[in-house]
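Thread title: Can someone regenerate the structure for this chain?

I was given the following input by a collaborator and told the matching structure tokens would be attached. They weren't. Posting the sequence so someone can regenerate them.
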Amino acid sequence: MSVIETMANALEPVGKSSPIDADDFAELVRSFNDVTARLESTHSSLRDEVATLKTELNETHRRLRRSRQLAALGEMAAGIAHEIRNPLGAIALNLEALTEDLVDRPGELELCGRVSRSVTRLDAIVGDVLSFARDTQVRAASVRPSEVVIAAVAHAEDLVDAHGIDVDLSLDEELEIMADASLLEQSLLNLVRNACEAMAMVDGPRRLMVSLCCRELRDPERGNVPHVVFEIRDTGPGIPEEIRERMFNPFFTTRAEGTGLGLAIVHRIVDAHGGRLDVSAGDPGTIMCLSLPRDPRTEISDGDVEEDGRSLEGAVRRRVRDNSGRGAA
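Best answer:
Regenerated them for you:
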């Protein structure tokens, strides 16, 4: 007997139906309990889904703010760097002429040498700023990311040898992706060198683990889509949570030397490819994940792509506009 029939019979006047027996009543109670349990389960599932969507929305907004900040700071940094480089070139030129006139005066020559070294250091800083701000061209082509990983690790061989680091590679060599191989290698090399320099500060085993695989990640616009994931693990001291929140900010660094632009440049390159860059705590050390969609966004692979490639700045701005519904400020 169905629940509806049982309830209907129970509600009929006594004179028209026999009283409900114990078995029917027990069946009715069980049916109500089953419905209640299903409703509670559905409610719990919906609540969890809302919480997940809220978390993803907050993360998307955070990434969007970071992309906007990097685009705006890039424009500002370019103007400042050019204004500094012009007088800096004049100082270097006059200093060279002055040095030639002081060859017989070692004391003054030493002072000129100090000034020259400072000028060289300033010029290197300006170069880093321009590298961050430059309207780099993204030239996407079909590449094997495993080959890019091997090239990046090879270029960090000096740090690997100097600090006695063991390197473990776990690469899916069959993967292919549309990306700018040069920019991708630059990004991976920066992450690998950061990992090596971090491990130089600890005693004990030093291992650099680089893996490459295909994994489905959730995209706010397209749902779950396949991504090529580069994972760089180290056994260094790790990164405190408060620093992880700031480490992608331009000019932020915990080192005695450096401009703090390396990770900001990496972030802009990943943004231009429609990917994501995440950092998490390892056990021990740090895990950096660089993820690029296997089916790239149209600004990388399709459409009216100019012969000289797509602008990194333009790609970042297009992505900000697409995600926000309006142009970047």
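Residues 142-324 form a domain with the Heat Shock Protein 90 fold (CATH 3.30.565.10).
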